[in-house]
Design a protein that fits this description.
343 residues, alpha+beta, 15 helices, globular
Length: 343
């Protein structure tokens, strides 16, 4: 069985398991090793809801702004946010993107009764949203960094991404925030049961829904913040596998970012690097991963895994059929396949 047949067989098995659409692409040293797509109207350049794969794009923006001297990763929060609460004042901008600022994982910004008209900065200032164990994976850090970046630089997050990341990488037109019902966008019909459980932890009742969405984020916080013209740095981007692969490749060699920025961004004493997960979080995703490996996954289903020694980038975009569907075995299988096909 040749490479094309093997990756198509993998996607056929994924389809049989209940995933309605997917794109898988594997690159090694800038050469595409294998690629396949399936689903009604789906092709290799179709766009999927990237969910938390938004985070590496935002972290890359942060790294670039640090390089050009516009917004230092080492800045204390109170230097860019004079009204920062005492419990957050001494945290660094970089800490927000490495999940080490002690912020809770989540807050229901999409519920009017929870926000009471307050903006995200005021909400995240609440003492009860801080003081968590560190590191702790948190969407709030990315929302806060993005909001502060918009304030300091005087632009919106999507515009900053376009100027400093998408245009330089040639991604304009292959990625966007909440793009709407464009022909290249694959619809996502994932339910909201996880958000219902999270909202209940804050004392709010949220009815379970299973509403198909086309071109708007499944993540209710991202959907609401983008709809209000505010930042949603933790999720909300839609894009193609090629766009994700291009971003990952930008972390393999000098170009958009300097080699020193790569080293600093990927260095970590725990599982979370700058926008990426390291081996301690990826080790269950398939095979013996090298210590230099990094990647990211999204709740809706997408994943990206990079192995620098092999110059290997593997991207799988899909939307899980429901929140209980376990994608971990499929990611393991895909990453093993990527290693095998790359030799």
């Amino acid at each position: 069985m040749n490479r094309g047949d093997r990756i198509e067989a993998f996607l056929a098995a994924l389809a049989e398991a209940g995933v309605e659409a997917a794109v898988a692409r594997i690159w090694q040293e800038d050469r595409e090793v294998a690629a396949a797509a399936y689903g009604p109207g789906v092709h290799l350049d179709s766009w999927f809801d990237l969910a938390s794969l938004t985070k590496p794009f935002v972290a890359t923006l942060a790294a670039k702004l640090d390089e050009v001297g516009s917004l230092a990763l080492s800045s204390r929060l109170d230097s860019v946010w004079p009204e920062a609460p005492r419990h957050l004042a001494s945290e660094r901008m970089e800490d927000l993107l490495r999940h080490r600022a002690g912020l809770r994982p989540w807050f229901p910004f999409f519920l009017p009764e929870a926000t009471q008209g307050r903006d995200p900065l005021a909400i995240i200032s609440q003492p009860d949203l801080a003081g968590a164990a560190r590191p702790l994976y948190s969407d709030l850090g990315y929302i806060l960094w993005s909001r502060l970046a918009e304030r300091v630089l005087g632009g919106d997050l999507a515009g900053l991404l376009e100027e400093f990341v998408w245009q330089p990488l040639g991604l304009s037109g292959s990625i966007a925030a909440s793009p709407g019902a464009r022909s290249e966008v694959v619809g996502c019909s994932l339910d909201n049961r996880v958000e219902s459980r999270l909202a209940a932890e804050f004392g709010y009742r949220l009815e379970n829904q299973h509403e198909p969405r086309l071109g708007v984020p499944q993540d209710a916080n991202a959907r609401t913040l983008v709809g209000r013209g505010e930042c949603a740095g933790h999720a909300g981007l839609f894009g193609s596998a090629a766009a994700v692969g291009t971003l990952a490749t930008a972390w393999l060699r000098e170009g958009l970012l300097a080699a020193a920025t790569h080293r600093r961004g990927l260095a970590t004493e725990h599982r979370y690097a700058l926008g990426w997960w390291r081996v301690s979080r990826l080790e269950d995703l398939g095979g013996e991963l090298s210590p230099a490996s990094f990647g990211m996954v999204g709740f809706t289903g997408p994943s990206c895994w990079v192995e620098p020694e092999r110059q290997l980038v593997a991207v799988l975009l899909c939307h899980r059929p429901d929140t209980e569907f376990d994608l971990l075995p499929w990611r393991r299988r895909f990453h093993r396949l990527a290693r095998e096909l790359s030799g």
